[in-house]
Amino acid sequence: MLESVLIANRGEIACRIIRTARQLGMRTIAVYSEADAGALFMQMADEAHLIGPPPARESYLRIDRIIEVAKRTKAASIHPGYGFLSERAEFAEACAANGIVFVGPPASAINAMGLKDAAKTLVQQAGVPVVPGYHGSKQDPGFLRQKAYEIGYPVLIKAVAGGGGKGMRRVEKAADFDAALESAQREAQNSFGDPRVLVEKYILSPRHIEIQVFADGHGNVVHLFERDCSLQRRHQKVIEEAPAPGMTPEMRQVMGQAAVEAARAVGYVGAGTVEFIADGREGLRPDRFYFMEMNTRLQVEHPVTEAITGLDLVELQFRVASGETLPFSQDDLTIDGHAVEARLYAEDPEKEFLPSTGRLWALEFPESEGIRIDTGVEAGAEVTPYYDPMIAKVIAHGTTREEALDKLADALGQTIVAGPKTNAAFLKKLCEAEGFRAGPFDTGFIDRNIASLGVGPQPLDEVAVSFGASALISREIERLRMAELQKSDEPSSPWSMPDGFQLLGLRSVGVPLRVDGERVEAREVFSREHHGASTVAFGESDPWADAEIDREVDAPHGVYILRHGRQTLVQPYDPFDVDLEHMDEGGTVKAPMHGKLIAIFVQPGDRVEKGQRLAIVEAMKMEHVLVASSNAEVAEIAAEPGAQVAEGARLIVLKTED
User: Fold this and answer.
1) At the top level of its lineage, which domain of life is listed (predicted)?
2) pLDDT of amino acid 299
3) Which of 169, 395, 451, 628 sits at a 20 to 30 Å CA gap from 403?
4) What domain range is 47 assigned to?
C-alpha cells in the first residue's frame, strides 16, 4: 500500500479521500488556496500547504505548484479527486516524470477519452453506438451552423473537453445557434482551457445512464452496474440513483459490456465512468442507447454505487494504484437494494438558482439509519464565489427505491442550513414528486415541472417574519436589561424596562424590518389575555396562532427563521444604512451575485429591447446572462469586463422609455 497521498483538490471530495486514506494508514497532505484557509479538509489532513490565491487557475489548476509541494513533502502519490486537474493528461505525466504515483488512469487513457470527438471515433471502432452528430475538428462558426442544420434541430453543443454540464447548450432553432455557440465556447475555455465543441442531435426523452467501470493493471476490467442521472437542470445532475429504474437484465448486460469494451480500448486502469444517453420514449431498450463520453476519474455520484455494492471505490483506487489485482470478478458482484443521492447546493431556487454565498451560521444533518452525508464544510465556514457551490451530498440506501426516496426526503427535511440559501426544499419536493416516483421520466423532467417544485418567487412567509421580529425584540430587550444591570448593582426597576403598559386600550407598536433585503413594516402587539406579553403581527397572520418553525438561528446582522424548508432573514431596519453606491436608480442592472464580469454586449447610447442580452457574470463555474427588463437606452456602463464584482454592484444603467 502507498505510504502517503497528496490530495490535489478541495472541499467534499478532499474530505472523502482523506477518510479512506486514514483508514489505510496513509499520511495525508492537503493543498489549499487563500480562500480555503482553515477549511475542513485542511483540518482533517495531517499537513496542509498553501498553493496560491483564490482563483482556481492560480492555485488548484497550477500543476507546477502542486508537484513542488508533493516533492517537498515526499508524497508517494497524488489523488486528483474530480474536477480541476483530474482529467488533465499533462498532470498525470508530470506525476510520472517526478516519480509520483498518479491515483488514476495512465495519461494515454486520459488523452484518448478526454476529448469527446476522438473518444466517439475510438469507441465506434470498438462497436459501441454513438449519438449522430459532427465530431470533427473544424470549428468555424459558419461550418458548425451548417452541420447543425444538416443534423436537424434540436441540437446539443458540447465542449470537446471536460464535463459537468460546462460548455453545453441545447439549441432549439437556427436563430439561436450563434449566441449559444459563442457562450458554450467561452465557458469551455474558462472551465477547461479548450474552446472546441462538437454538435450532436438532441435525443428526445433522453435518459442519462452511466456505467461505473474499474480496471487494474493486470488486464482485469469489470463494471459495477449502472447509475441513473436523468434528473438534471442546466445539464447538471441534481439527483442520482442506482440501479436505474426500469433497467432490465438484458439491457444491463449489453450496456455493461459496452462500457467494459470502451475501457479496454484505451488500456484503462482505475475508476472510470462511461456515460450513455438512452432514448426513453418506449422504455429502456438495448438498441436505443448511445455513448456520450467517458469520465476518466471518480464521479461525484460514486456513493450510490458504493451503497449498492458494499465497496469503497477510493480504497480500490489506492489498491489498484499500488499495483494490486482487483479482489473480485464480474460474477462476484451483486446489487443490494437501492440508493439515491441529492446534491445540496448553496443556490436560491426562488431566484432562478442563482448561487448564494456567505457564512454558514448553522449546518446540521440528521443521523439516521441508511443515511450518509458527504460534506466539505461545517458551521462557521464561508461559501465563497470561487468554487462549486456544493454544500453536501445526501445519500440514502433502502431495500427498495420507494424506501430510499422516503429516507432521502426525510433527511432533506431535517437538514438545517442558515446563511446561504439552499435547494434543500426543492430536492425534497423532487423526491416526493409523483412523476419521478412513478415514471417514466427523462432529463427534461425538472424543466417540465418547475412550477410545482417551488421554483421562482414565493410569497413572503408571514409566520417566519413574525417569529423573526419577535426574536429581534427579545434580543433588544435582553441587551437593554444587561446594560441596565451594568449601570447599577441595584435590581432593575420594572418601570425601566420596555413593555406594553399604557393606561387605555391595547397597545400596538410599529416595527420597521428588513426581510430578505426588502423593507417591510410589522406590528408589536401586547395582550392583557397573555399577561402583558407581546408578539409580532405581520400581514394577515394571527400573532397568537399556534404556528411552528424548524429553527431560529441568531446572527450578528439579524435572525434566520427556518420553516418548511425555506429560510427567511429578518433584520432590524436602519433608515441611515443606505448603500448609495448600489442604490437602485430604477433602470440599474446589478450583479446578481459575487463573480467575474465576463462580457458586456452594449455601449452607452445603444437602444435595447426587453429580453436582450446585456452582460454575462460568471460565478461558481457557471455563466449567468443578464437581460434588459424593458425597452430602454443604455445611459452608463459602470464596470469593466474582467472585473470581480460584488453582489448588488452596478453594472449598467438604463434609461427606460417611462
Assistant:
1) Bacteria
2) 96
3) 451
4) 4-103
